[in-house]
Amino acid sequence: MLGEFEPLDEYEGKVIGIIRRLDDNEDKLVVAKELNSYDKLQIAALTEFQERYFKSEIITFDYLKSSIRNTAKALIRRENELLVLEELVELI
Question: Any idea where the domains of the chain sit in the sequence?
Answer without folding.
Answer: 14-65
